[in-house]
């Protein structure tokens, strides 16, 4: 355990207490303990699309629970092996789930995925007080049109995936690292597209706790409202970060 502590002393310990943080970067941080990040907006600022109570419970309840349980399983794993995962971020670990010992794998996938997935989900949304229709910039728009034919066809396909996903999970727009093409995929429960070698840049959470207080069992209403919150500038920033982050180029050889 001393080796782990020495390693963390040499690591860059990032402070994520600011409410305007780029929270997607937390996923790639190597820290002794992950903190529940503050959201980049107040709980009431996503209204009328996501209500204050839902966002508060989702963040302080569900996301906080995943964070706490992730730290617990990582601590247990570090006592078992003080090199890997102590020298890796949760994002890197989820990209190499086959290296996780069997006794920790389920807990890491569930709680690590819950931590990472929510950080991405919060990031790709922002307040829309003027209720504007938002679209991507020309560069991302061109990639979407190349991959799906048009923005409307992409939006329709993404929406259909969200409507038809059985049970709890997420729908993602991800970039494939090798050919840079965009694809739509789904994950069940807290599985992450990182574990499939993808670079996720847009996500909707369709677990019932993401919308049940406001929309009850009406998932279509949640999906429709969520589109109004998608911040394409943040999506593009996340996309650029994955592309520019040279560390991930090495990780692709794992797949």
TrEMBL record:
<dbReference type="InterPro" id="IPR019831">
    <property type="entry name" value="Mn/Fe_SOD_N"/>
</dbReference>
<dbReference type="GO" id="GO:0046872">
    <property type="term" value="F:metal ion binding"/>
</dbReference>
<dbReference type="InterPro" id="IPR019832">
    <property type="entry name" value="Mn/Fe_SOD_C"/>
</dbReference>
<dbReference type="InterPro" id="IPR019833">
    <property type="entry name" value="Mn/Fe_SOD_BS"/>
</dbReference>
<dbReference type="GO" id="GO:0004784">
    <property type="term" value="F:superoxide dismutase activity"/>
</dbReference>
<feature type="binding site">
    <location>
        <position position="118"/>
    </location>
    <ligand>
        <name>Mn(2+)</name>
    </ligand>
</feature>
<comment type="function">
    <text>Destroys superoxide anion radicals which are normally produced within the cells and which are toxic to biological systems.</text>
</comment>
<feature type="binding site">
    <location>
        <position position="205"/>
    </location>
    <ligand>
        <name>Mn(2+)</name>
    </ligand>
</feature>
<feature type="binding site">
    <location>
        <position position="209"/>
    </location>
    <ligand>
        <name>Mn(2+)</name>
    </ligand>
</feature>
<keyword id="KW-0732">Signal</keyword>
<keyword id="KW-0560">Oxidoreductase</keyword>
<protein>
    <recommendedName>
        <fullName>Superoxide dismutase</fullName>
        <ecNumber>1.15.1.1</ecNumber>
    </recommendedName>
</protein>
<keyword id="KW-0479">Metal-binding</keyword>
<dbReference type="Pfam" id="PF00081">
    <property type="entry name" value="Sod_Fe_N"/>
</dbReference>
<feature type="domain" description="Manganese/iron superoxide dismutase C-terminal">
    <location>
        <begin position="136"/>
        <end position="237"/>
    </location>
</feature>
<dbReference type="InterPro" id="IPR001189">
    <property type="entry name" value="Mn/Fe_SOD"/>
</dbReference>
<feature type="binding site">
    <location>
        <position position="58"/>
    </location>
    <ligand>
        <name>Mn(2+)</name>
    </ligand>
</feature>
<dbReference type="Pfam" id="PF02777">
    <property type="entry name" value="Sod_Fe_C"/>
</dbReference>
<dbReference type="InterPro" id="IPR036314">
    <property type="entry name" value="SOD_C_sf"/>
</dbReference>
<feature type="signal peptide">
    <location>
        <begin position="1"/>
        <end position="19"/>
    </location>
</feature>
<comment type="similarity">
    <text>Belongs to the iron/manganese superoxide dismutase family.</text>
</comment>
<feature type="domain" description="Manganese/iron superoxide dismutase N-terminal">
    <location>
        <begin position="33"/>
        <end position="126"/>
    </location>
</feature>
<dbReference type="GO" id="GO:0005737">
    <property type="term" value="C:cytoplasm"/>
</dbReference>
<comment type="function">
    <text>Destroys radicals which are normally produced within the cells and which are toxic to biological systems.</text>
</comment>
<keyword id="KW-0464">Manganese</keyword>
<dbReference type="InterPro" id="IPR036324">
    <property type="entry name" value="Mn/Fe_SOD_N_sf"/>
</dbReference>
